[in-house]
Design a protein that fits this description.
heterotrimer; A: 609 residues; three-stranded antiparallel β-sheet; 23 helices; 11 strands; C: 291 residues; 9 helices; 67% helix; extended
């Protein structure tokens, strides 16, 4: 029994997978087997690792020659294993941390609100069930002819449901349900329910009014407890020390957010509630505005300032002009805004399309065109070209453009997006400084001139970053990437693993040379063929080789080394490789059969013969 | 992706890309039409709204598949003149005057209907999505129906289809639609693989037949392979010099057949080593391989009658990382200087490092691998190399068992089959190339496109 | 040996002094980071000029260690030595642990525990995972059970049970690879070899094409003859298989020549690391401002 069971397992597993290959219903079994293998290999690490540790410990305890190196091996092994398994120093995954929201635990069963619409869930003959993202939340009541949703539906759940079945009636029902299953108006966009995380969430600081509105939605003790916890969590204030000179010029906390404040006496920067990522970036860019294209006059002013602070060579001035011209231009911005003013195709809602269908239409287009063509008029363009970020904020710019002509919301969004992508004035000055340095030296004063603003920006960013970190409560500390840059595991990978293995790989260059050198002493035809071909191919890939045979006339062009290389690879190499691969396929088929039919049992240790 | 019968077409189109794609196609068609239509003598185009749609559309399940395909059959648009046009090469000039002399034959004039667009919806008169852009060829118009196979259908769900014709001018016709739902069903056999099944059965059958023949007692002879005859010599040498035999079963895991083949060779080498009283060392790169190798060597020692000579510590795990493994091996080879080195399994770039280091220490080296890219390095640096199929045959050779030798014969039958197929195929292809016969070309296309796919 | 050792020690001391001097004079091999409050990002010498980036002790020490490791591995070309032994010990330990960590976080957690206990894993380590258990998730108990059986190897009495997972792996591998190779290698290679032995290009005889096709088909036949096991390589068969071996040698030579450049490129990368990133003797990418 001990001997036959493994053989039966082998045969059963193998033949099942062979047959499964030809049957559509079981085609994916091969992939499942591959995943199982990966898991098994991962579990088997315990055996391998244990063996490694045991052997080296034995070497140390027996004090065999070279036992000191075993100490090094074991130390390296255990340190790497520890920092890797415990994800030491890894920051949580940014996309899943829900920055800007606070969570309060609330399971789906305890969520008190349910929303219903009339309709039925269309069945699927293939048996596939409703999307996982709405698991447990969407229920159909066949008797009453309604569908109900527990929770507040999120956009990705709507998409999943619409893609479940492309029937207009179903999609329209789902859209109606989506509109219904939302928090009341004052809380829209602020209160969320994440069923997968079993969490009631709120974005930003919860005001008294919002608190009472939420409380009034239901009276169950779990709900009230969750709302209370959320209120408390979102009204916590985080603070960091921030010296007054680190604040940017014209710092105005209220202009950013009502939740931000600065205590001048204690020199503390405070924020109440959770801080979203966007706010962190806005806090920097509000006071370090985007760089506007440098006009020739402004450029001259800069050159003069630089000359006052130290010597400036011609090459440096030229480099400065070149670098200044490399930034964005007003023409690009205008083009971008005009492009956003074109009419755009947007998808119709399912309800619109259902109405079309019910009205008798037989051809229903899924997209519709909205908007009329808008371009910036001359006044607006002129105003735009005079935009100077040191005197005007982007909001003022938008205001001004609106006063001078029509401006659609899409155009405003495109304008903001374009400017948000561009470097700040401080960053631009830094780049100009780098261009100057590449062309010649700079004195300390000149450096202060070019880099001073950037230093302030980074310093401010550092305090903003600290405040951001202080205002965030980590939700998933173990979700980070185990190989995140900056962690000890990454350090071991980057500065031990990678250089050691890459250098071993690079050693091949020397070994190839020694192998070729030995083969130079070719004694038989086969070795000459191998070496000669290698030589031709190698030369064909270098400039020298191509040059050597370039003198050959057109009629003999096929003897040129590039041509020879191609012919060798296309004809001879192909023939040889094909035969080898055919042979290998036959060998594998035969070996597999021998293993499955238990003709060859040596690997299983069942006694050999 | 859609598939069809020898028509050139574009696969499944989704979402908003359909419009960009259609727009591009329309522009291209327009440009082609502008460039190629003769300035005088061109027949007048009908106004766009009068391009006739296909006459009839039927949709049904695609046979012998996994349940994701539906065949859409439709009669060509009445305006579709491709068949008649190609069948009468010099007769008609499409009603237009060619006072300037229409240049060339029909190959210069574009057919009136350039393509057909198939769209699909999950409900009758719902939202139809374009799923295929089909450009038919003359040979597709058999028995009056055109066929398009639409892929990525959900099994068991009803679908409705519409087909419209696209004229060379880019104008589109109205649609013809199916009124009954078509449902893709899964059959129990994948018909596209029938030829593969046949070939697999032939190959496996050959192997099994010869194994049975061998078992019946008939003696089978096989040619000599130098590398395998050297195994005994290598192990003996190691015993004489009092040094170990190093066996490396490749750097891949047990899910690679080469590793399994390597382990079967290890069984033979270990048995020889047990008989000669030599020490075999097997550092492995995978934990599972270590486990399997221990089983193998232990049973080999038992079979040789020397179970107490087995030392489990001679088979150990080093590291999974390819170059860490070879760094260890290089160091170990230089320090302990094994007299014989066997490299049997799947190797990658480190093959050269191992072979060269072995050369430097003066060991006798036998390598075997089915990794074509590493064979050159082994051939250049090792004393004996088992190339590809020889490596898989090694276990049979070393055991000498009739069963295993029978399997070698089966492999040879496989090569004979290959030879026969090549002779027939190349013969057909050569005749087809010389004579240009359509029948021969169709035969070659069938051989290459269906049987050997 | 003593003299050799003295020469080597002397050389090493001189090199060490030169390195030390350069490090103190030029400050080479420094790695910079920029502290942004909530994250620390990698930076470079240019940012350091603006005084917004600081040298990172850990990363600089790492770079120097990496350079010394590189030299230690290269030293093996001369002969085995303690530096190489240290480097070898480190690479074995670090790489073995590295792959174990990858095995846990990239395979076990998402593919085993994530399938069996999705809600727990979602709450703990993978917030993006769906908390709904797949109806077929019980299938993943199979590899778990097989893994436990494998661990029986460590138990004194249960070693025979450890053969079952091995048997399963070997059986499934054999089954998958059999059809896989026939499908991918066998059929497709024969398919590509079915070529006309007389090639025509738009009605005219094509010399190059014909020559190419002939060579390919004859080559495949000759090599297959070489691999034939049933007949000894004598006489006609011997001649044809000799031709086959020549084809194979040309094939191997071509592969050999093709990879040489790639290997030299690898060496160039390591040398660039040493001379650019570490010693700051060259600066091909302009990564550092002019002194």
């Amino acid at each position: 029994m001990k001997r036959t069971v493994p053989l039966i397992i082998t045969a059963a597993g193998g033949f099942t997978l062979i047959v499964a290959f030809f049957i559509p219903a079981t085609e994916s079994w091969g992939e499942v087997a591959a995943i199982w293998f990966d898991i098994l290999a991962a579990i088997a690490f315990i055996l391998g690792g244990g063996n490694l540790v045991r052997n080296h410990l034995k070497k140390i305890s027996d004090q065999t020659a070279g036992w000191a190196y075993s100490v090094i091996t074991l130390a390296a092994f255990f340190i790497t294993l520890t920092v890797g398994l415990f994800k030491v120093g890894a920051r949580p995954m940014e996309q899943q941390e829900y920055y800007g929201q606070r969570f309060a635990s609330l399971s789906l069963e305890d969520f008190p609100l349910e929303f219903s619409v009339e309709g039925t869930i269309p069945p699927k003959k293939s048996g596939r069930r409703l999307p996982d993202s709405v698991h447990g939340q969407l229920v159909a009541d066949a008797a009453a002819g309604t569908i109900s949703f527990r929770g507040w539906m999120e956009p990705n759940q709507l998409d999943d449901l619409k893609n479940y079945k492309h029937l207009l009636e179903w999609q329209a029902t789902v859209e109606t349900l989506y509109d219904k299953a939302q928090p009341p108006e004052p809380l829209r966009g602020k209160a969320f329910y994440h069923a997968g995380h079993r969490a009631l969430a709120f974005a930003g600081r919860m005001s008294e009014f919002e608190y009472h509105t939420l409380r009034e939605l239901a009276g169950t003790p779990e709900w009230l407890a969750a709302v209370d916890a959320l209120y408390e969590a979102t009204n916590q204030t985080a603070e960091i020390e921030c010296p007054a000179d680190a604040l940017p010029e014209r710092f105005d906390a209220a202009a950013i957010s009502p939740d931000l404040s600065y205590d001048e006496e204690l020199q503390r920067l405070r924020f109440t509630g959770p801080m979203p990522l966007g706010l962190r970036d806005r806090m920097v860019r509000r006071f370090f505005p985007v760089a506007t294209p440098l006009s020739p006059a402004a450029e001259q002013v800069l050159v003069n300032l630089l000359k006052q602070a130290g010597p400036l060579s011609e090459a440096q001035i030229e480099a400065l002009s070149k670098a200044a011209a490399a930034g964005w231009t007003f023409d690009q911005l205008i083009a971008e805004v005009n492009r956003a003013g074109e009419p755009v195709q947007v998808p119709k809602t399912a309800r619109e399309m259902l109405a079309e269908k019910q009205a008798g239409a037989t051809v229903i287009e899924p997209m519709k065109t909205v908007g009329e063509k808008r371009t910036l008029n001359n006044l607006q363009q002129k105003f735009l070209r005079e935009f100077d970020s040191s005197e005007m904020t982007v909001d003022d710019l938008v205001e001004g453009l609106r006063r001078m002509g029509p401006l659609s919301a899409r155009q405003v969004a495109a304008l903001r997006a374009f400017l948000a992508k561009q470097p700040t004035a401080a960053e631009r000055n830094k780049e100009l400084g780098f261009a100057l340095l590449r062309a010649g030296p700079l004195t300390e004063e000149q450096r202060d001139l070019m880099f001073g603003d950037y230093r302030k920006q980074i310093r401010w960013r550092r305090y903003v970053g600290r405040l951001f970190a202080a205002a965030h409560v980590v939700k998933f500390p173990w979700s980070g990437e185990y190989r995140a840059v900056g962690t000890p595991f990454w350090w071991l990978y980057e500065y031990a693993f990678k250089p050691l293995t890459a250098t071993m790989f690079a050693m091949l260059a020397f070994y190839v040379a020694s192998a070729a050198f030995r083969a130079f002493r070719a004694k038989n035809l086969e070795a000459v063929l191998l070496l000669g071909t290698a030589f031709i191919i190698l030369l064909g890939r270098t400039f020298a080789g191509v040059y050597l045979t370039s003198w050959l006339p057109e009629s003999l062009s096929f003897l040129r080394i590039e041509e020879l290389t191609i012919r060798i690879m296309q004809w001879f190499n192909t023939a040889g490789n094909r035969a080898i691969m055919i042979g290998i396929a036959l060998g594998i088929a035969s070996t597999s059969l021998k293993v499955l039919l238990a003709v060859d049992r040596s690997y299983l240790g069942t006694g050999g013969d | 992706m859609s598939s069809g019968h020898r028509g050139r077409y574009v696969g499944c189109l989704h979402g908003q890309w359909q419009w960009a794609w259609l727009f591009a196609q329309t522009v291209a068609a327009l440009l082609i039409a502008c460039c190629l239509v003769a300035p005088a003598g061109a027949q007048p185009d009908r106004p766009p709204s009068e391009v006739a749609p296909p006459a009839e559309v039927i949709a049904k399940d695609h046979p012998w598949d996994g349940g994701h395909k539906i065949d859409v059959l439709f009669r060509p648009s009445p305006d579709d003149d491709r068949v008649t046009r190609d069948a009468e090469p010099s007769a008609t000039t499409q009603g237009g005057s060619d006072a300037n002399g229409a240049q060339g034959g029909p190959s210069d004039q574009k057919p009136r209907i350039a393509a057909y667009i198939v769209s699909r919806a999950e409900e009758f008169h719902g939202v139809y999505e374009d799923v295929a852009f089909y450009v038919p060829e003359a040979a597709d118009y058999r028995d009056g129906w055109l066929r398009v196979t639409v892929d990525k259908c959900e099994r068991g769900e009803p679908y409705f289809f519409r087909v419209r014709a696209v004229a060379s001018s880019g104008a589109q016709s109205g649609f013809a639609e199916t009124s009954e739902a078509a449902i893709a069903r899964r059959q129990w056999f994948d018909g596209g693989r029938i030829w593969m099944l046949l070939i697999t059965v032939i190959l496996c059958g050959a192997v099994v037949t010869f194994i049975l023949i061998a078992r019946s007692g008939r003696s089978l002879r096989v040619r000599r392979i130098a590398g395998l005859e050297a195994v005994d010599e290598a192990v003996g040498r190691a015993t004489e010099m009092g040094r170990s035999v190093l066996f490396i079963p490749g750097i891949q895991d047990m899910n690679d057949i080469q590793t399994i083949a390597g382990l079967t060779i290890l069984a033979r080498v270990a048995r020889t080593a047990a008989e000669y009283d030599a020490r075999v060392e097997v550092p492995t790169s995978r934990s599972l391989v270590m486990t399997a190798a221990r089983e193998t060597v232990q049973s080999a020692f038992m079979a040789a009658g020397r179970p107490d000579a087995y030392d489990p510590n001679s088979i150990y795990y080093v590291t999974d990382e390819q170059f860490g493994y070879v760094a260890y091996l290089s160091g170990m080879m230089v320090r302990e200087k094994p007299a014989a080195c066997f490299y049997m399994g799947s190797f990658f770039a480190e093959s050269l490092i191992l072979a060269e280091t072995g050369n430097a220490i003066g060991a006798i080296q036998v390598a075997g691998t089915a990794q074509p890219a590493q064979l050159p390095f082994f051939v250049a640096a090792c004393d004996y190399t088992l190339i590809g199929e020889e490596f898989f045959a090694a276990s049979a050779y070393l055991s000498g068992e009739p069963d295993q030798l029978g399997s070698l014969k089966g492999q040879d039958v496989g090569k004979l089959v290959v030879g026969a197929v090549l002779i027939i195929g190349c013969g057909l292809a050569t005749m087809a190339a010389i004579t240009g016969s359509e029948t021969l070309e169709a035969a070659v296309a069938f051989l290459k496109g269906t049987m050997l796919r | 040996m003593n003299r050799e050792r003295m020469i080597w020690t002397g050389l090493l001391v001189v090199a060490g002094l030169w390195l030390l001097g350069r490090a103190l004079w030029v400050g080479n091999g420094v790695v910079y980071v920029q502290d942004l409050g909530d994250v620390t990002v990698s930076s470079d010498a240019w940012e350091a000029v603006t005084e917004t980036a600081r040298p990172s002790i850990f990363r600089t020490a790492g770079l120097w260690l990496a350079a010394l490791f590189t030299l230690a591995i290269f030293s093996f070309l001369y002969r085995d030595n303690p530096f190489y032994k240290i480097a070898e010990a480190v690479v074995v330990g670090v790489s073995a642990a590295y792959w174990m960590v990858v095995g846990v976080w990239a395979t076990m957690v998402p593919n085993l525990f994530g399938k069996l206990f999705p809600a727990t894993i979602k709450a703990w380590a993978m917030p993006g995972l769906s908390p709904v258990r797949d109806p077929f998730s019980w299938l993943y108990l199979v590899p778990l059970v097989l893994g436990i059986l494998l661990m029986m190897r460590l138990a004194p009495k249960g070693q025979w049970l450890a053969r079952w997972p091995l048997a399963f792996i070997i059986g499934t591998t054999a089954g998958i690879r059999l059809v896989g190779f026939i499908h991918a290698d066998f059929l497709s290679q024969i398919n590509s070899t079915v070529l006309p032995l007389v090639a025509m290009e738009s009605g005219r005889f094509d010399l190059a094409g014909t020559l190419g096709n002939l060579i390919v088909v004859i080559g495949v036949f000759a090599c297959l003859t070489y691999f034939f096991f049933s007949i000894e390589h004598k006489g006609v068969v011997g001649g044809v298989s000799r031709l086959g071996i020549w084809f194979l040698m040309i094939t191997f030579g071509a592969a050999f020549g093709y990879t040489v450049m790639g290997r030299i490129a690898l060496l160039a990368i390591r040398l660039e690391f040493l001379f650019d990133d570490w010693l700051w003797l060259i600066d091909p990418t302009g990564a550092r401002p002019p002194m």
